[in-house]
Structure formats: C-alpha cells, structure tokens
From TrEMBL:
Residue intervals of the EamA domain: 17-140, 158-288
Alphabetically ordered keywords of this record: Membrane, Transmembrane, Transmembrane helix
Gene Ontology cellular-component terms listed: membrane
Family annotation (PANTHER family): EAMA DOMAIN-CONTAINING PROTEIN, INNER MEMBRANE TRANSPORTER
Family: Belongs to the EamA transporter family.
Bilayer disposition of the protein: Multi-pass membrane protein
Name of the protein in its database record: DMT family transporter
C-alpha cells in the first residue's frame, strides 16, 4: 500500500503534493495550542514520551494490518533521524518552550520552518531551488526573527532558544522523512519511525507517569489525544506524502501558512492576545510563500 506518487502524470502528482501538504499544515496548526494547554497539567517530558508511545502503538497496528515489510537495512539510519527530529526532538523542545512563552508567540517561530526544511532538503534530499527562491525564504524568516527581537528576547530567552532548536531538528526530520518517503512510502515512514521509538517511549511513559491522573481535566486529555493521534501520526501521513510528491523545498513553504492558522486557534480557543505585530508578521511571511513557490524549481 504505497500511494506516495502517481507515475506518468507529473502535473497530477504535483497538485496532489500541494493538497496533501496543505492538509498536513492544517493538522499541525493545532499542535502548539494543544500542547500549550496540555503542559498546564502534564509534565512536558511525560507529555512528549506518552504522545509518542500512544502514536507508536497505533502505528504498529497499521503496519500489521496492511502487512508492511520491514525497511531495508540502509533505511534504518534515516528512520532514526526522523524519530529523533519529529518524534522526540520537536515535541520535547516545544513542550519545554511553552512553559516559558505563549502558544501565540511560539507559533510565529514556525515561520522559520520552511527555510530550515529547504536547507535540509538541499543537504539531505539533493534538491536545488533557484537563487530567487532563497531570497523569499530568507525574507520570510527574517520577518519572524525580527518580530522576536522586537518583542525582546530577554523577556524569555529560554523559551525562544528552545523554539529555535525545535525548528532546526524538525526541519531535519521533515527533509529526511520526505527523502525516505520516495522509496518507503509517506505513511510508512512515520509509522516505522514511531515503532522504532516505541520501546523507549513506552518505558519512559511508565517511569514518568504522575502518581495520580485524578486532577487532570477533560480538556487536557483532549489535547493529549490530539497531539498523539493527529500531530504525531495523521498529520505526517499527509505531510510526508506532500513533500515527496511536490518537492521538499516547494511544498515546505506551505508551513508559512501555519502561523496564520495557529494564531487563529490561539486567539479563539485559548483567548490569548494576538497583537497587530503578530498579524503583520504572519501576513508578511504568508506573502513570501507565493514568491518562494514560484521559484522553488
């Protein structure tokens, strides 16, 4: 069961890549607001490992149901990089960061993801976007960094540094997973990465579990379910397929839309203040995606 590509029809494959990528971005947009709510009641390290453990069990079931063959020996290193980047690194670093900054503030940093993904797409995926592409990509990233500096990094340097580290490891995990998706399949990549992580994540989940789950509220459980099922598994099924079909650098620019959706969720669900500056930066980076998309190849 591998529907990552549509051989013989490049135009349809490219369009499918953008559609799948857009769905993935929509799903990921709820990740930071959900994590922000969850870490109010769950320890961030426990949240990271238990969400991966839950998703890992579901991934194992999917692989068994569809009788997927084990990856080749040379593919396990790439799967380990994916696991370290998107199963462990990004969730843990963002959960820690969200103890210091609001989800609205952290979401703006997601505007750096397209640049990070494109850079690792060149290093790991062998892509070569045109020079003008980098102008638009760097411009969008500069808007994000400029906003962070204008807010005053001294207010929470720990939170901002953690978010920057999260973006780097996530970009690497995205590019590595997209490259592997071309041969292994989009949903298979994230499932095998989760299964690879499952023994350690399950062990840590038991060890780090709180003495009692009684005080945990219903909304916190809903957020845990969301980040486990959608952020950790379903979103990647669409995202890796989109990157593999439409190109890592090109489709990766859709991540510039994620701050817009995330800010809307932060304001609507968490009632966090979204300043005019945040909106201006978000609109600016969204404007950059059109230029970057045009010159991606």
């Amino acid at each position: 069961m591998d529907t990552t590509s549509t051989p013989g029809n490049p135009a349809l494959e490219k369009t499918s890549g953008w559609i799948n990528g857009f769905i993935g971005v929509l799903i990921f947009s709820g990740s930071l607001p959900a994590t922000r709510l969850a870490v109010l009641e769950f320890d961030p390290v426990f949240l990271t490992v238990v969400r991966a453990a839950i998703a890992g069990v579901l991934a194992g079931v999917l692989l068994w149901l569809f009788r997927q063959r084990r990856p080749a020996r040379h593919q396990w290193l790439s799967l380990l990089i994916v696991a370290l980047g998107v199963v462990l690194g990004f969730p843990l670093l963002t959960a820690l960061a969200l103890q210091h900054v609001t989800s609205a503030h952290s979401i703006v940093f997601v505007g750096l993801l397209p640049l990070a993904t494109a850079l690792f797409g060149v290093l790991r995926g062998g892509e070569r976007p045109r020079p003008v592409f980098w102008i638009f990509s760097v411009l969008g990233s500069a808007l994000v960094v400029g906003f962070a500096l204008a807010q005053g990094l001294s207010a929470s340097p720990t939170g901002d540094l953690l978010m920057l580290a999260a973006i780097l490891v996530c970009g690497l995990g995205y590019a590595e997973g997209a490259k592997l998706s071309r041969t292994l399949g989009g949903w298979q990549v994230i499932c095998w990465a989760l299964v690879l992580s499952l023994p350690l994540m399950a062990l840590l989940s038991v060890y780090l579990a709180p003495a009692s789950f009684g005080p945990i509220s219903g909304p916190a459980w809903v957020c845990l379910a969301y980040v486990s099922l959608f952020s950790m598994l379903i979103g990647f099924v669409f995202w890796y397929r989109g990157l593999a079909q439409g190109g890592i650098a090109a489709v990766g620019q859709l991540q510039l839309l994620q701050p817009f959706f995330g800010l809307a969720l932060a304001a609507g669900l968490l009632h966090e203040h979204v300043s005019l500056g945040m909106l201006a930066v978000t609109l600016g980076v969204i404007g950059c995606v059109a230029g970057a998309k045009k010159f991606a190849r």
